[in-house]
């Protein structure tokens, strides 16, 4: 029998290994495109899709669930946007908590937990971010996606050299083309990111949303952190909220800059009748001064480099060995949302929305955000 040459055997083995690697990576890559489940709680009366407000989104990575929590009692309407930046997990998790726990007693609450759905399918290059993080619930650990600041390049590519904001002509760096919070009010025939922004703007117009709140996080060294940024029309609501929560925690209220375009707190206030606000908590896993970046940092917010930076006054929020946990950051977001709803009659011509029996800031911090989430299934 003729002997098979060694180089043929070697090439065959290497080819087989390469095929196995490709199949394995394809499975991993494919799994990253599948979102983890969100379990609608008793307050959810309808689950709609964002493409209802922009049909060309249907079937794309930009389409995402819109949860409607209708109290059945006439009142105002509030829209909460989580996951505008999927690398800011307290914004996403707070929105998930509303879907799974909140039962409004007056008015209608709309929640979009994954506003930039595509951004949840990848992480940012060179950031060493974890792909997921775990949250302890009563029934075990639930896994959530840690995503990218921007739309996945797989879904929108290439970036132009510079990004020209459509309605203002503002010029930013090309990578901002995929940043949902630079795309408002959006365009029906624009990029995927602009279509998502357009759909959210249309939802606000068509459903007469009185208050829109966009949930974010930022680096602990950033100047606008532990803050509410409000369109000038919503500034009084921001101040009322700030005063309402001040016994529990400090938050500042800042006016939206009039010459910075594409952001929710500017464009949604200018292009619709909604009161547009954005909130920021301090997220060490996003900061430039952080050390090891892993799921533990995302959840605990503990980082020895930030402790050292705080000793040099290099961070803008109080920071010590206890860190800033994701439960504390969610507690801020959720408490401020409940306070905004409570204050709504003072700014909305007698119309009100009430989020019902929501836990206090101190309770969320003590119990952990997982206490208010559905068990893993
Ligand atoms: Zn953000």
Alpha carbon gap, first and last residue: 58 Å
**CATH class membership of the largest domain:** Alpha Beta
Number of strands: 12
- The helix/strand series, from N terminus to C terminus, equals HEEEHEEEEEHEEHEHEHHHH
Outline: globular
Estimate the mean pLDDT confidence.
Answer: 95
Structural class: alpha/beta
Short account of what is shown:
Helices cover 31% and strands 16% of the residues. The protein has 377 residues and is α/β, with parallel strands linked by helices. The protein has two domains: 1-32; 36-372, Aminopeptidase (3-Layer(aba) Sandwich), CATH 3.40.630.
Q: How would you characterize this protein structure?
A:
- With 377 residues, the protein is of the alpha/beta class.
- The chain has 2 domains: 1-32; 36-372, 3-Layer(aba) Sandwich (Aminopeptidase), CATH 3.40.630.10.
- The chain has 9 helices and 12 strands.
- The protein has helices at 6-32, 89-101, 192-206, 235-245, 264-271, 295-300, 304-311, 326-347, 361-367, and strands spanning 46-49, 65-70, 77-81, 108-112, 132-137, 140-145, 162-164, 171-173, 211-218, 227-230, 252-255, 275-282.
- The protein has an 8-stranded mixed sheet, with helices on both faces. Strands 5-6 form a two-stranded antiparallel ribbon. It has a two-stranded antiparallel sheet with strand order 7-8.
- It starts with 5 loop residues before the first helix and ends in a 10-residue tail after the last helix.
- Zinc ion binds at residues 85, 88, 216.
